[in-house]
Automatic annotation (TrEMBL):
The organism's place on the tree of life at top rank: Bacteria
GO terms, molecular function: ATP binding; ATP hydrolysis activity
Signal sequence extent: none
Protein name: Sulfonate ABC transporter ATP-binding protein
Record keywords, A-Z: ATP-binding, Nucleotide-binding, Transport
ABC transporter domain: residues covered: 9-240
Length: 260
């Protein structure tokens, strides 16, 4: 079954103008992301992963090339709330409860109180925080706070979830657990996910498609379609298929480096 393309970049280029001169962040990026894909972006620090994600979210404007999100310009897609964005830090307001934080975008969007309640409850359940709505952020662990921020991004039911290194600051055990939960959530909701990471195992474990980027100016060094099944227990990381894909990611990272 062929899936609809939800994000398409064609020959995208982005140069930041700074006081120290131009910074060429993205170069000739062409990529298609389909409905239900889980796409990870991996590459060396400063290669433009965050910039690309922010460009999809219309938080940056490309200098050249084309970008469509659900057939619209990135700006139109932003206005239509086509995606939720999860940042590196949970970014929860300390004076609001967890439910209050998740409710905030819904308040801004003008949902009625009863609609807000239904949506908040639903997403709290999705991220397994059903009993924590009345707690304040400081009463939750780092991993739970990050789950709450995912819930906030899911609350208005956007089809696309953009995640910028959401688990980078967490210890490995918590991160493994959150990776497992995120995969389950993705399977249940059929969202399209764009995910930035520095971790090869995380990228291979989560993704249907891995985009390996070269050092700045960020280009696509390789796009790997995963052969792993959709159902992935954590110990799949010891399977020969997993190790082979991880090896190809590593090769892509190395090849990208040797271009310069
Ligand atoms: N607003 C900006 N103005 C000027 N330069 C910027 C701006 N945002 C990013 N850059 C530069 O663009 C390049 C790409 O940055 P970006 O944050 O996208 O990289 P990254 O791959 O996400 O890095 P990391 O893995 O370290 O988070 C970097 O050299 C960065 O300094």
């Amino acid at each position: 079954m062929s899936q609809a393309t939800v994000i398409e970049a064609k020959n995208l280029d982005l140069t930041f103008q700074t006081n120290d001169g131009p910074v060429h962040a993205l170069k000739d990026i062409s990529l298609k992301i389909n409905q239900g894909d889980f796409v990870s972006f991996i590459g060396p620090s400063g290669c433009g992963k965050t910039t690309f994600l922010r460009t999809i979210a219309a938080l940056e404007t490309p200098s050249a090339g084309e970008l469509t999100v659900k057939g619209m310009s990135a700006e139109e897609a932003r206005q239509k709330r086509a995606y939720g964005f999860v940042f590196q830090a949970a970014g929860l307001y300390p004076w609001r409860t967890i439910a209050g934080n998740i409710r905030l975008p819904l308040e801004i969007m003008g949902f009625s109180k009863s609609e807000q309640n239904v949506k908040v409850e639903k997403v709290l359940e999705l991220v397994e925080l059903a009993n924590f709505g009345n707690k304040f952020p400081w009463q939750l662990s780092g991993g739970m706070q990050q789950r709450a921020s995912i819930a906030r991004a899911l609350a208005f039911d956007a089809d696309i979830l953009l995640m910028d290194e959401p688990f980078g600051a967490l210890d490995e055990i918590v991160r493994d657990h959150l990776n497992e939960q995120l995969l389950k959530l993705w399977a249940r909701t059929n969202k399209t996910i764009g995910f930035v990471t520095h971790s090869i195992p995380e990228a291979v474990y989560l993704s249907t498609k891995i985009v390996v980027m070269s050092p700045r100016p960020g280009r696509i060094a390789d796009v790997i379609e995963s052969t792993l099944p959709k159902e992935r227990p954590l110990d799949i990381r010891e399977s020969p298929e997993f190790i082979e894909i991880a090896h190809r990611v590593r090769e892509g990272l190395r090849a990208g480096h040797s271009d310069d």
